[in-house]
Write a structure and sequence with these properties.
328 residues; alpha/beta; D-Maltodextrin-Binding Protein, domain 2; 2 domains; ten-stranded mixed β-sheet; 14 helices; elongated
Length: 328
């Protein structure tokens, strides 16, 4: 009789656990960047994935100053989730400016993308005049290059600066050669090149970005490849990935072009419960189509890719899910 009661009690507990798992819902805030853009779309995808996996759940996208601001929000536990570039997480872990101290309590839930390569666009006229066939040629040919990159404070500015340092070039060197480094937002960069006020744009953009297509219709351009040695050096210092821009991604680009590429990941504080981290990762993996459908740039996202970042430690809850799915 006692044995039967024990079995019935165990069955009842199991039934309650299953019911709780099915009825579990979450109200989460995701710190992103400005309204609109890819990160905003990722927020929409996450909301759809969580609703599908755990009915009644919501993911509210919160605008912020971007990944660096999100690191601070996460570290202070002001938001449960945030999107952070791989470069920004490495800077935070190392306590590099603008961080005053090392940030050691953040954990990765999933890698979201790494296909935002720094595309080195140079006018064909300038490249031919100075025989520029690769990024490294800038160091040896010392051309009077007028190059636009993002404003200081933007992570792309830091990555481009590291790229130049990797080949032994500084902004002061470029100025000595008669050139200049022009800080400018993406739209301003396009206008400057179109008006021939600069010779090159070095910016992190998705392949097939409309701004590049439009500029290439107004000005003949080429894209400079980056050597494997430079990619490895910059990657080891900043956490960026190597990436190959497929041949013929643009009409002016017949060959594949190696580049360094920024990536972004979903990050939480280490104090998030293992179960919550597990369920968020579960929603992303099992409902990946919701993420893939929010923006053309997210079509490449796969469950396996979510495990492939090497900058920060994964949250134990996410690790458990990935191992159960055979992804780790």
């Amino acid at each position: 009789m006692k044995y039967m009661k024990s079995l019935l009690l165990a069955a009842a507990v199991a039934a309650v656990c299953v019911s709780d798992a099915k009825t579990q819902s979450y109200q989460l805030t995701l710190a992103g960047a400005s309204p609109g853009g890819l990160w905003s779309s990722i927020g929409i995808g996450m909301d759809k994935a969580m609703r599908a996996a755990f009915p009644g759940s919501t993911v509210t996208y919160q605008t912020s100053g971007g990944g660096i601001a999100n690191v601070q929000l996460l570290d202070q536990k002001k938001v449960p989730l945030g999107i952070v570039h791989n470069v920004e997480l490495r800077m935070a872990q190392n306590g590099e400016a603008p961080f005053k101290n090392k940030v050691e309590d953040l954990r990765v839930i999933a890698y979201l993308y790494n296909w935002a390569p720094v595309q080195l666009l140079v006018t064909k006229e300038f490249a031919e005049k100075h025989d520029l066939k690769s990024f490294e040629d800038i160091a040896t040919k010392k051309p009077p290059l007028r190059v636009a990159t993002n404003r200081r404070g933007n992570v792309v500015h830091d990555v481009v600066d590291r790229m130049f340092k990797a080949i032994g070039v500084t902004a002061q060197d470029i100025e000595k050669w008669g050139g200049s480094v022009v800080p400018a937002a993406s739209q301003e960069q396009s206008d400057l090149l179109r008006n021939r006020r600069i010779d090159a744009i070095f910016n992190s953009l998705f392949v097939g970005q409309r701004s590049i297509l439009e500029v290439s219709q107004a000005v003949d351009v080429v894209m400079l490849p980056v050597s494997d040695a430079t990619i490895k050096k910059v990657a080891s210092e900043t956490g960026v990935d190597g990436y190959v821009i497929p041949a013929k991604s643009y009409a002016f680009q017949p060959d594949a072009v190696p580049a360094v590429s920024l990536g972004a990941m979903l990050v939480a504080h280490k104090d998030m419960s293992d179960q919550e981290a597990y369920n968020i990762a579960k929603a992303l993996v099992e409902q990946v189509k919701e993420m893939q459908g929010v923006h053309p740039a997210m079509k490449e996202l796969t469950p396996k890719f979510m495990t492939e970042q090497k900058v920060g430690a994964f949250h134990p809850g996410a690790v458990k899910l990935f191992k159960e799915k055979g992804l780790m």
